[in-house]
Amino acid sequence: MSPDARPFSAAAERNRAPILAELLRLLPPRGTMLEVAAGSGQHAAHFAAALPAWDWWPSDGDAASLPGIAAWCAGLANVRPPLQLDVLAPAWPAVPARLDAVYCANMIHISPWPCTAALMQGAARHLANNGLLILYGPMLIDGVITAPGNLAFDASLRERNPAWGLRRLVDVEREAGRASLVLRERVALPANNGLFVFGRAGPG
Ligand SMILES: C[S@@+](CC[C@H](N)C(=O)[O-])C[C@H]1O[C@@H](n2cnc3c(N)ncnc32)[C@H](O)[C@@H]1O
Question: Does residue 17 sit within a domain?
């Protein structure tokens, strides 16, 4: 695929810098990363370039996304060929057995709710003891007034697909708990998005 033919998300281009700043703060210098729902591949390319000691495994449920991800990541020695990974699969055999982090941006509100539970369960199966599951996107947070733009986005998602829609953080945390994961940190980011960092329950 030529550089001009690569898929392009304006939002991914805008949000990559604030997300990367948080990843650089949160992640150790090296490790193995699974990116779930990599979409266009712009995040994979930007983050893997800035984290060269991380072994980056981009994936998406949609096989049609994989050539674009590969094209964005061309020339990056620390990025693996993209995997087709539907989080709903009962096992993720192509994914390394032990991951130091799982990153997933903008999937849980643009997929049916069971995908959130499956993401939690899959991450918990593969994460090392001190591993992190890092979600990015808009979320409904109890006690925090939802921005009008996010309410409109929620309505538009539900119109496109009644199974989609912004998720409530308390519901996401409940699913995390079923996978023995807990929310360790929440960071507000521009455009009414957030970063939600989960780790294993227990000390740490
Ligand atoms: C809005 S895009 C987000 C892409 C990218 N992460 C970003 O933030 O720009 C949502 C992505 O979720 C993927 N997706 C939806 N359901 C999925 C599933 N069950 N398993 C894995 N990926 C899924 C879609 O194929 C799509 O690439």
Answer: yes
Determine which residue's CA is closest to atom 15 belonging to ligand 1: 111
Which CATH number covers residue 89? 3.40.50.150
Report residue 58 CA to chain centroid gap.
Answer: 10
User: pLDDT, tens digit, for every residue of 145-199?
Assistant: 999 999 999 999 999 999 999 999 999 999 999 999 999 999 999 999 999 999 9
Tell me the per-residue pLDDT of 12-33, one tens digit each, with 9 for 90 and over: 999 999 999 999 999 999 999 9
Give the range of the structural domain holding residue 33, as residue numbers without chain letter: 3-105+115-146+161-182
Token code pair at residue 19: 């997300």
CA of 36 to the centre of ligand 1 (A): 7
104's enclosing H/E stretch is strand 99-105
User: What is the number of domains present in the chain?
Assistant: 1
Counting ligand 1 atoms within 8 A of each CB, the residue from 72, 107, 195 with the most, and so the one to mutate, is 107
In a domain, 187, yes or no: no
Closest by CA to 142, choosing from 119, 164, 174, 98, is 174
| Residue 156 is assigned to a structural domain of this protein | no
Residue 47 lies in a domain: yes
C-alpha 105 – ligand 1 centre gap (Å): 8
Tell me which residue has its CA closest to atom 25 in ligand 1. 62
Taking CA atoms only, the protein residue closest to ligand 1 atom 10 is 107
